[in-house]
Amino acid sequence: MPLFVDHPEWLTPGIIPGIPFFQWYGLMYIFAFITAYLLFMYQLKKSKLNVDKDQVINFFFWGIVGLLIGARVFYMVFFDARGTILKAPWTLILPFDEHWNFTGYRGMNFYGGIVGALAGMVIYARIKKIDILEWGDMLAAGIPLAHTFGRIGNFINGELYGRLTDAPWGMFFRDYDEATNIQLDMAKNPHPQLKYIMSVTDIDHVKAGLLPRHPTQIYSMLFECLAIWAIIWFIFRNRKPYKGFIIGLYITLYGFVRFIIDYFRMPLRNEFMLKLADQNNPTYLLLSPFNFTLDQLFSFLTMAAGIITLVAFYKITRKDTALASGEDRPDLRKLRKKIE
Question: What percentage of the chain carries pLDDT values higher than 90?
Fold first, then answer.
């Protein structure tokens, strides 16, 4: 039997057992905000721009407000298959479930967070006449590292795990609701791939839902966060060809890497949004690259938006450069008239 890893039992969402208001996930958010702020200030100092520190704090404040609202709304609207927002609308803004049990803000979505943060920061920048492309580039250079803490929080919570796998680094996550779903499939018509994984792991049908899964939180931490941060920070940060390049590069890289990782990640809605092959593909198995989840559709749109952003900012820069060079060039007609 291959060696598999057990998700540590001592890792629980609560920092202090019995006190629900102190959650690791919330603490990770605080670490993420601090990291993004410190990296931004480091670049600001290096750039020698004369900027009011209060403006930076307000810029981050409205970005954080937008992020929290956007992440929560996006999750509740697109990924909460139970329709909680219709049954208990207070769950949108309060950290309690429909039965008024404290849960913390565990239902958050990265795409919504990005949209919300952009909205908050862009509006503030327009009001204060801040160069949003310059500031946005500095922010985008630090976001991937800050995002790492969010993925650490996901791992601690044992959430956002992957599909079933027989890989030796597969990990056991104790999600008994998901176990029940797989056991029901086992009772009806088990897929041959599921039977194979059960045979190589020597786990019987009673525990079928607790089969090893891809630890996609770790994949995300390594590739969505640390790898993208290293590429941007050490290669492109000081070599950007034009303003807004780092923004577009980050959005493009994130969309691409996330699209790939989502092949291994268990979809939140537990369904495929677009099936182009193998109609009998259960969501907990990776059987075809042509069946796509809702996350992957958003990842594709994110990647496309990043490419459009890169092209748009490049054209704006070229236009501005052409106008500037045109203004500096002497008017030959006027010069000729003066000579005559």
Answer: 52
